[in-house]
């Protein structure tokens, strides 16, 4: 599959997928999107790069042992979920209760809402990315 | 002093959520400490102890009425509820007891490399799923917790990844995927027709189907699909063929956990949906209520499980296979009182007590026997019946433990299983005043089933434990420490029998809360 066409296309498409996934991730707390969808998109971008450039090249390029990183991502995602879920318990509110702040208008962005659920979503993103990538690297071996 | 009081009340308020939090946290910490075997074992044991303490705490807290917990503070029909009532807590306590024994056994027998390779993490993830399924108060969440349990059990069943396990794993995965798809369809249908998934709200709406415009025929169809899925999970006869495959292939401690804990989750779901959620009278077309259909289908399934499971167990030449088929037959015995309860509401209370006693007995005894089978596999090297013989002279303590568990499953007096069988027989004779012919049918099937159980138990006992010491047994090296895991379980059976008056209030409270829809609705929707 490592033809010039796939390599060139992957170079252009992968960053676009990354950006789309980030947009979906950020808007996830109250519209369509969220950690899971973003993670699936990230993994699809990475798998596209894997297909175009081969696993060995990419591993050398990123200078990491991938399966170790994937596992760490998975565990830290789970820990983040647990942590964001448990913080309200310390304030005697139910597990997973979230809070949000409305930031004042910032020029063209309009009203910006920041919610604690985004950390939970980040946990989901890390967990799903880590587990999907470790499945992928296990299958591709 | 004041601060301590406040913290205690916090603990009480959050108690229904503690067990799942603890099991998830310990699984995560174990995943992090993968490099060191010692750390893994320490964290795993510590997590298990904390888990058991949290369940004991809940057990002391929940006396008669259920307590509910709303995640993220969304009120009941909209948010996710967790409900702890005496029934789910009884099953949770058994879960904790069996998992402690299984953990102890696993630490001693599973080889170090595999223990480091996330074995303990998956054990805690399995507990996480089971606990969630037993505590959740939401139908869709029940599906999710089922999937969590199944996903981890796929990994654990195929943990040694040999060919036998891969084959069993394939059947297990495909069957449960199909089951899961049907469950999801049924849940979607129930949501479409009733407009809610919260179990308490569902029960409330189903009691007044006209008010909420619920189409009764479609609801009945969807609940019957759920029934089939639960029957698959508990391994009743037409859907039983995964049981012997998986139980023989899986590592013994995992078989113990599957038969003692995971199978009982299917039983729990069946009781929860068909006795707590579905109101006894309002869901019916003409004279036929959903409970009648449920009762008759379950009756046929449990009769065939008792007979087919018993006969197949007789023909096994391998201890694991015998135990697996015996498990199918005993599941029939556990389900039989439920079908009687559905058909004859007058004897409902006693029927549930019988089901719970039989299920407790089967969980403890079967888990203990699977651990024994693993122990024999390790010390003798084989569990084929013809290779074994004279174990009672070779390892007497093990044999006493097997004797107690094996004959408790059969229901030989005076061990615990006998009480279950007595309850079942009294129950069947009580149905005589309602439909005389039925009670004769019940009693004859129970007697035939018990006779079959007695026969396979005696066969196992005679070939493996009595007679001359076989060459493999005499050359085997005795292992002492792992024995304590199953000895503890069978000792517990004896203790429960001796102190039955102490635990009978627990069982009675469990059976009452299992059929108490209004108490359940009040606890979840109105926080009474």
In terms of DSSP E residues, the strand content of chain B is: under 5%
What is the β-strand count of chain A?
A: 2
CA radius of gyration of chain A? 18 Å
- Give, in order, the helices and strands of chain B: HHHEEHHHHHHHHEEHHHHHHHHHHH
Instruction: Report the structural category of chain B.
Output: mainly alpha
Mean pLDDT of chain B: 88
Number of strands of chain B: 4
Characterize the main sheet of chain B: 2 strands, antiparallel
Structural class of chain A: mainly alpha
Number of domains of chain A: 1
Summarize this structure briefly.
The complex is a heterodimer of chains A (141) and B (528). Chain A is mainly alpha-helical. Chain A has 5 helices and 2 strands, in the order H-H-H-H-E-E-H.
Describe the protein's topology.
The complex is a heterodimer of chains A (141) and B (528).
Chain A: H1 4-27, H2 35-53, H3 55-62, H4 66-90, E1 100-106, E2 110-115, H5 117-140
Chain B: H1 2-14, H2 18-32, H3 37-61, E1 67-70, E2 81-84, H4 86-109, H5 112-135, H6 139-157, H7 163-194, H8 199-207, H9 216-234, H10 242-249, H11 252-277, E3 284-285, E4 288-289, H12 290-314, H13 319-343, H14 348-379, H15 391-394, H16 396-410, H17 416-430, H18 436-465, H19 471-475, H20 483-498, H21 500-515, H22 517-525
Antiparallel strand pairs in B: 1-2, 3-4
Helix pairs in contact in B: 2-3, 2-5, 3-4, 3-5, 4-5, 4-11, 4-14, 4-20, 4-21, 5-6, 6-7, 6-11, 7-9, 7-10, 8-22, 9-11, 9-12, 10-11, 10-13, 11-13, 11-14, 12-13, 12-18, 13-14, 13-18, 14-16, 14-17, 14-20, 14-21, 16-18, 16-20, 17-18, 20-21
